[in-house]
Write a structure and sequence with these properties.
It is a single chain. This protein is mainly alpha-helical. About 65% of the residues lie in helices and about 5% in strands. It has nine helices and two strands. It has a two-stranded antiparallel sheet with strand order 1-2. Helix 5 crosses helix 9 and helix 6 runs antiparallel to helix 8. The longest helix is centred in the middle third of the chain and has 24 residues. The two termini are about 55 Å apart.
């Protein structure tokens, strides 16, 4: 089977390839675009059919997307898809009240999703050492700076101001850490929304759990 899309993302052929592309060649030949004998079928589709083929008598190129939508092959494909849907509905109705297997949104249970995704996230963080070292550097730098505010303190008013300055310096750590965590989280979330979630690889609970758990070790160390 081959699914051919035009530059706009619309299908203009979806069917069997045939022996040496015979089915593809016949489909386009029946509509006035003949593939040369020495031409590669894949190159023929990309270079000729996707561009509209030869111009017709009115000077316009063939709209292959419209031709496919009006073709008998497309009608047969839609009928097959509808039959599969009806068969699935029938099987579901017949399985109600029996020992039917529960229909889940994801192939794996939540526990397995969380375990595998957490393992993958740890591996991802281990390979991205600059992210981990940046968090550690911020904590160490703020800690050293805060520690020097206690250097040789006495009971004077200036020493009291230094002691009161310590809580303020500590409050600077969370924003600095969050500024590094949030962009990485949003990047992973965008990937999840665009690829993993539509393909039902894993769910939101597993994703959030893995992201939080992977942050804990470096948070403790730093």
């Amino acid at each position: 089977m081959i699914l051919a899309l035009n530059p706009g993302g619309n299908p203009f052929y979806f069917g069997p390839v045939g022996d040496n592309g015979s089915d593809v060649i016949k489909y386009f030949a029946d509509r006035g675009t003949v593939c040369p004998p020495t031409k590669n079928v894949a190159e023929f589709i990309l270079e000729t059919a996707a561009k509209g083929g030869k111009r017709s008598a009115d000077g316009k190129r063939v709209n292959w997307n419209r031709a496919w939508c009006e073709s008998q092959q497309n009608k047969e494909m839609l009928a097959e898809i509808q039959s599969l849907k009806e068969r699935r509905i029938t099987e579901t109705k017949e399985s109600e009240g029996t020992q039917a297997k529960e229909q889940l949104a994801f192939a794996a249970p939540v526990a397995l999703q969380t375990y595998l995704l957490t393992k993958r996230t740890f591996t991802q963080y281990w390979r991205d050492s600059s992210y981990l070292y940046s968090k550690l550097f911020v904590s160490v730098l703020v800690g050293i700076f805060n520690g020097f505010t206690f250097y040789q303190l006495d009971n004077s008013l200036a020493s009291l101001q230094s002691r009161l300055f310590t809580p303020f310096v500590i409050l600077l750590i969370p924003p600095a850490i969050v500024n590094g965590v949030v962009p990485k989280f949003y990047t992973s979330r965008a990937l999840w929304e665009a690829r993993e979630h539509p393909s039902r690889t894993y769910g939101w609970f597993a994703f959030c759990t893995a992201q939080v758990v992977a942050e804990i070790p470096m948070a403790i160390v730093s």
